[in-house]
Write a structure and sequence with these properties.
This protein folds into 2 domains: 221 residues, Porin; 107 residues, 2-Layer Sandwich (60s Ribosomal Protein L30, Chain: A). The strands form 2 sheets. An 8-stranded antiparallel barrel has the order 1-4-5-7-8-9-10-13. A 4-stranded mixed beta sheet has the order 14-17-15-16. It is rod-shaped and about 145 Å long. The two termini are 88 Å apart. The chain has 4 helices and 17 strands. Helix 3 crosses helix 4. With 355 residues, it is α+β, with helices and mostly antiparallel strands.
């Protein structure tokens, strides 16, 4: 298994291992990355300027050693979408130059400086992980040097060619401002023809078809302005307990020693009944009282009689009997404190509470 296969497999494994979203970046950022670069074997049209040299149009191919690559980028993010300008450097040594089955020994180098415009989308996988997919177009400047061993006359030339690339990567957010990532690039540069020969002019040429490269890099991305930390919404406030039901009080008075209702008492009870029915009171509490004149046992019975009279009146006015409680307190809870045996009109009363 080649080192290129192992590295590409590692990138694919990392992309699938992310258990799910990176932060929603905003604003300007810079990134720096470096790694290995592989240059595919390439077909070469050799010496079309001088067809008599080395067979002219004879089948020729070149292969390259594993090299290295570095990229510096500056871009802007709109949430998950990023646009950036990338400056890239790649370098690979020539490994072999095969003409008509014969391998010409020697040395040489491919050095490339690319300026690319990229558009990348980050698919958020979890709070910190995201998968990046994108591509770019631009220009690639190739510095070619086949050294003297490849030809009787060496070729050293520089060519600008159109280039495009596809990008796949895995991001890990360290904090709101810094991200580590692994990227894979499939890079394709157009055909390039190299003709300059040191001190001799354009005597020979090497014309490369469809230069294809693969780069695997590790990098760091830094937001120039720190992203704000999302504020978690406050938990909903619990509704306050409902206020206790309002208590409405009505008081009716009786003549001393009596439990029959006067006209004024009947009018007050009519008001109480109307209020109970209109507001839907759940309960009506009636308590009868007396003054201190007479014995305590008689006063207890008198207070109960007064309470029962008020209850009967309310039931007659449409208040449900089941919602009414009636009791007597005798002379034990006077409205006005007096000595024993004292007649006090304000103590001869019934209190009606609506709840």
């Amino acid at each position: 298994m080649t080192s290129k296969t192992i590295l590409l497999g590692a990138v694919a494994s990392l992309a699938l291992a992310g258990a799910a979203s990176a932060a929603n970046y905003q604003g300007w950022y810079i990134s720096l990355e470096a790694g290995v670069n592989f240059l595919d074997d390439s077909d070469v049209d050799n010496d079309t300027i001088d067809p008599t040299f080395l067979g002219g149009f004879a089948p020729t191919s070149a292969s390259f050693d594993t090299g290295w690559a570095g990229m510096l980028s500056m871009g802007h993010s709109w949430g998950d979408l990023r646009a950036e300008v990338e400056l890239a450097y790649r370098s690979n040594d020539l490994d072999s130059f095969n003409v008509q089955g014969a391998d010409f020994g020697g040395g040489g180098v491919f050095e490339e400086f690319a300026v690319m415009g990229n558009l990348v989308y980050d698919w958020r996988l979890s709070d910190r992980w995201s998968l990046a997919l994108g591509g770019g177009i631009g220009m690639d400047q190739i510095h070619y040097d086949n050294e003297s061993g490849w030809h009787t006359v060496p070729i050293r030339d520089v060519e600008w060619v159109f280039a495009w690339q596809l990008i796949a990567g895995l991001n890990y957010e360290i904090d709101n401002q810094n991200t580590l990532f692994v990227n894979y690039r499939y890079f394709n540069a157009g055909d390039a023809e190299f003709t300059e020969a040191d001190g001799f002019g354009d005597l020979h040429n090497d014309s490369y078809d469809d230069i294809t490269k693969h780069a695997v890099t590790i990098g760091w991305r830094h937001d120039l302005i720190e992203d704000s930390t999302p504020v978690e919404p406050a938990p909903p406030m619990e509704a306050p307990p409902p206020p206790p039901p309002a208590v409405r009080n009505f008081v009716i008075y009786f003549d001393a020693g009596k439990c029959n209702l006067s006209g004024e008492a009947d009018a007050v009870l009519s008001e109480a009944a109307s209020s109970a029915k209109s507001t839907g009171s759940a309960s009506v509490r009636i308590v009868g009282h007396t003054d201190t004149a007479g014995g305590s046992g008689g006063n207890q019975k008198l207070s109960e009689c007064r309470a029962d009279a008020a209850k009967s009146n309310l039931v007659g006015k449409g208040v449900p009997a089941g919602s009414i409680s009636a009791s007597g307190r005798g002379e034990s809870e006077p409205a006005v404190q007096t000595g024993d045996g004292v007649r006090e009109p304000q103590n001869n009363r019934v209190v009606i509470d609506l709840q």
